[in-house]
Every structure is written in C-alpha cells, then in structure tokens.
Amino acid sequence: MSNLADLTLYNGYALVETIKESAGKFELPESSDKKPLKGRVVKISDQLDKSDLNVEWTCPAQVGETIWYRNWGSELVDFGGQDYIFVRFRDIIAGVKE
C-alpha cells in the first residue's frame, strides 16, 4: 500500500503517526514505558469501539489533532518509512488541536 488514503479502518481504531520524544541529555528510566505516548491522528474508523460488555466509545479526537494515548497492545506499522500505530478510541487520553 503506497497511500494512506487507500486504508480503511475498522472496529473503533484511529491511525496515529507516532511522535518520539527524548529526554535531552538524560536517560529515561524503565518506568517511562508506562507513560502515555504522543502522536498525531491521521485517520479515524467510521465504526465504534465496542467492548465485550457492549460499552461503546466514539473517537474523542479529530484528524490532525495531537493526542496522548496508552499503548495497551496497539499495533505498530511502517508506511513509507514512517511509524504509525493503531489506537483504540478508549485508549486516547487527551488531545490538543494544533
């Protein structure tokens, strides 16, 4: 696949371009892997995120918005040399419109 426009998302996922942050001269402790991750929403599924208990989530973010999310088993993929991650709507914690 050469174009993200051709990608169709299902089951309540957002495609997020990962943003890697560094701590400058300091090394981050191992516990930093538990902190929320940052990314930019590229595409959003038209379907709801549904749990096994029939709880439904809509996407709280919009395309182009920078978000912080928890990585609870999301899938990291590479499209054209850029890392993207599929994030469930329920795992999006906060967002900032830029």
Question: Within the largest sheet, what's the order of strands?
Answer: 6-7-1-2-5-8
Mean pLDDT: 81
Structural class: mainly beta
Residue share in β-strands: 35-45%
Distance between the termini: 28 Å
Low-confidence stretches: none
Annotation field: number of helices: 0
Summarize the amount of helix as a percent range.
under 10%
How would you spell out the order of helices and strands?
EEEEEEEE
Radius of gyration: 14 Å
Overall 3D form: globular
Largest sheet: 6 strands, antiparallel
State the total count of DSSP E strands. 8
Layout: helices, strands, pairs:
Elements: E1 13-19, E2 37-44, E3 49-50, E4 56-57, E5 66-69, E6 75-79, E7 82-88, E8 92-96
Antiparallel strand pairs: 1-2, 1-7, 2-5, 3-4, 5-8, 6-7
Provide structural commentary.
The structure is a single chain. With 98 residues, the chain is mainly β. The protein is built from no helices and eight strands. It has strands at 13-19, 37-44, 49-50, 56-57, 66-69, 75-79, 82-88, 92-96. The strands form two sheets. A six-stranded antiparallel sheet has the order 6-7-1-2-5-8, with no helix packed on it. Strands 3-4 form a two-stranded antiparallel ribbon. The relative contact order is 0.29. The mean pLDDT is 81.
Concise synopsis of the structure shown:
The protein is mostly beta strands and 98 residues long. It is 0% helix and 41% strand.
Give keywords.
single chain, globular, six-stranded antiparallel beta sheet, two-stranded antiparallel ribbon, mainly beta, 98 residues, 0% helix
